[in-house]
Amino acid sequence: MNKQKVLSVLESINDPLLDRDYVALRAVESVEIENGCTNIVIKLGAKADSLEKKTSLALKARLEAAGLGPINLRMVTEVLPFAVPNEQKHLSGVKNIVMVASGKGGVGKSTTAVNLSLALHAEGAKVGLLDADIYGPSQCAMLGVDEDIKPELVDQKFIRPVERFGIKSMSVGYLSKEKAPMIWRGSMAVRALQQLMEQTLWGDIDYLIIDMPPGTGDIQISLAQTFHVAGAVIVTTPQEIALLDARKGIEMFKKVGIPVLGICENMATHICSNCGHEESIFGAGGAAKLAQDYLTPLLGSLPLDSRIRENVDQGLPTVVNDPMGSLCNSYMALANQVAAQLWLSNLDAVQSPTMVVSDA
Fold first, then answer.
1. Phi, psi of 168 (to 5 degrees)
2. Strand 205-211 with 94-101, pairing
3. pLDDT in tens, 25-47
4. Right CATH for 89-323 from 3.40.920.10, 2.60.120.200, 3.40.50.300, 3.40.630.30
């Protein structure tokens, strides 16, 4: 058995999420050939528990079909961190900060952010969710957190996040009365969010998802310039006015040097609950064209479905309310794409692992 043949075959097999071969992805951690058996360790940079077994079986079958003899394949996962870590004490354990943003309100950004967070957790990642929509915080209600539950204060200056459905969450909504409006000037709002970021005890997590306020104002720019952000997800609907504002969001992230991981198209189509007819109420093809114009992926298209709204209104987001349903599958696919794009984005800044290749 020849080690180069093993590597050659691995170069011909693409990861299902990124459509790149495992050698190019630096995912081949070791190849050991011993007594006619080929032992291979593949190390993935994104959590995707729902796909791991299927991927492993398919990869093993391809290797055996290439005549490599008995294969002992082990797949491990370690989420790659952003190249520039945040030095703030309580952010040092956060591998990737991801901003979920939109150019305008009303496109379902917050609903997308909470379901994305829960889907990433369902795939095996450690996740935090920060509600940065400081004038209209909604994540407390979407997560179904009781009004009486408040974050625990530690040493009179740090905050322990509220855990719900396996994710850590923080919101100014936890710290204020439900009906009290946030009447803050821009600088006050920015400072408040910076404090929530820095003083929350996030611990070691793979992804901190930030549900950003809509638009491209002071809060967006200040947070982007204060913290090292791994990437941004732009949420839009297919209608032209939303796409115009989404372009502004992309341009803002380009100016502050934050990678745009891709576009999430929300409310793409509506399926009639009576007759099953599918219709593109807000137009079609706009998000794909936007992604093409900016050479960024279309991460997913989510339907306009009343159940999504009903679920968050009940404090049970779709991913936890109907984990086996088609709507949940759409969010899981979105999460897989976001994780994969972060893996790819962080890959170039990570040194190639030392690969052990030996013949015995």
1. -90, 130
2. parallel
3. 999 999 988 888 889 999 999 99
4. 3.40.50.300
The three-state DSSP-derived secondary structure of 273-313 is CCCCCEECCCCCCHHHHHHHHCCCCEEEECCECHHHHHHHH
pLDDT band at 118 (very low <50, low <70, confident <90, very high): very high
Nearest Cα neighbor of 34 from 312, 358, 308 is 358
Q: What is the pLDDT of residue 241?
A: 79
Backbone angles phi and psi of 76, in degrees to 5:
-125, 160
* 264-305 residue pLDDT tens: 999 887 777 777 777 776 667 778 888 888 899 999 999 988
Burial bucket for residue 20 (CB in 10 Å: 0-12, 13-18, 19+): middle
Pair type for strands 167-171 and 162-164: antiparallel
Q: How far are the Cα atoms of 63, 131, 318 from residue 308, in angstroms, in the given order?
A: 42, 19, 6
Nearest to 98 by CA among 268, 280, 338: 338
Q: Report the predicted TM-score, pTM, of the whole model to 2 decimal places.
A: 0.90
Asked if 224 and 213 count as a contact pair (C-beta separation under 8 A), the reply is no
Domain 3-78+348-359 fold = GMP Synthetase; Chain A, domain 3 (3.30.300)
